[in-house]
Amino acid sequence: ARVSSLVGLGWLLALPAVVSLAWHHGAPGRDPWTRGQVLSLFANAITAAVILILVFNVRRTQAATKTITVEDEKGTQLVREVPSDQDAVRSMVVYFLDNETGDPQHQWLAQAIPYVFQIDLLQDLFLDVRSPYQNVDLAARFGAKDVYNIPSQIQREIAERHHVDYYVNVSVKSVENVEVELEIVQKNKAREVERKTFSGSVFSVIDDASLWARRVLGLPGEHIERNRDEPVADMVTASVESLRNYMHGVSEVVVNSDYRKGYDVLQLSVRADPTNALGQFQLFTLALLTRPDARAEADRAMNQMLMHLHRLPDRMQFLLKHYYYVNLLDPVKAFAVL
Question: What pLDDT sits at residue 19?
C-alpha cells in the first residue's frame, strides 16, 4: 500500500513536467531547450521530492501506532498503544557479551547486561527481542563450543533461525567503571549498522544503550519520546548483589542444567532484594521442581512476584501471569492473559 501510494503521488507530482514537455517538445522534429524549461524541470523535481519526503514522514509518524482496548483475565479493560503496521516492528536477537576484562569473576556482567538490555527493550512494542538464553540450545546445535562466545558465522545462523532483522553483540571492556561496547549488525547483509561504547554503572549503561539502540534502528522519534521507558533499576532490581546472584542462578539452570544449585543461588538473589519479581518467579519454579515438600516456600515466592509484577514490561507481566494461572490449574485465565 505504501509503495503504490508513493508511486501514485509521484506520478501526480510529475504532471507539471510532463505537460511542459508535451507542450514545448511534443511536435515532430528537434526543438531546442531553453534555460527556462530546464530550470522548470529541475524545480518540479526538487518540489516533488520535498513533498514526497514531508508527506510520507508525516504519515509515518501519524500512523505509526494505533490505540486498542483489551480485556485482562479479571475483565478489566486496558487501553494500549500498539504498532499499526507489523512491518514497522524491528526484530533482533541479543547475544551474551565477550568478557574482555580477563577476569572470570566478571563473567556475570557478560550475562547480565545483554539479558537486562533485552528486558529493557521489551517495553517498546516496536521491538521484537529474543533473549540470549534462547540461543543456548541453538548455539550448541550449530557447533559453538562456548555459549558465551559464539562465532560470528553461528551468530548469523542463529539470527536466521529466529527470523530476525538484526543481532546485537556486546563486549565488557572494564568493570572499574563499567565500560561496554555494543554493536548492532544487520543480519541479511552481515554488516555492522553502528557501534558505540557506554560507561557508567551497570544500570545506567543498559538504560543508555537501549535508548541508543531504538534510535539506531530507526524507530519514530515521536514514538520514542512517548513510549514507556522505565529505568532498569526500577524494573528488575537496583541491587548489584541481587542481579549478580540472579544471573548465576539462571545460568546454572539454563546452561548447566543444575537446578538445585540454581535454587540455592536464587535464594541469595531474593534475599538481597525481595522486590526482584523475576528472581521470585524463578525461585517459585525451582522450588516446585527440586523440592516437592517446599510448596509453602513456592507460594511465598509467587506472592512476592505478584506484588512487584507491575514493575516489569507488559509482555513479561502477561507471561508470568500465564504461568501463575497454569499453576493454579485455571486454564481460562491462563490463556486470557496471553
Answer: 44
Nearest by Cα to 196 from 182, 184, 214: 182
Sign for the CA dihedral angle at 53, 58, 61, 64 comes to negative
pTM: 0.77
Grid coordinates of 192: 555492522
What would the grid cell of residue 258 be?
A: 543444575
pLDDT of residue 28: 53
b/e map 68-94, b = 16+ CB within 10 Å: eeeeebeeeeeeeeebeeeebebbbbb
State the DSSP code for 97.
P
Cα distance between residue 191 and residue 105, in whole Å: 32
Give the pLDDT score at 38. 47
Question: E strands along the chain, which residues?
Answer: 65-71, 77-83, 90-94, 98-99, 127-130, 166-174, 179-186, 191-199
User: pLDDT tens digits for 285-304?
Assistant: 888 888 777 788 888 999 99
Contact 238, 281 (CB under 8 A): no
Residue 33, phi-psi category: left (phi > 0), alpha (psi -120 to 50), beta (remainder): beta
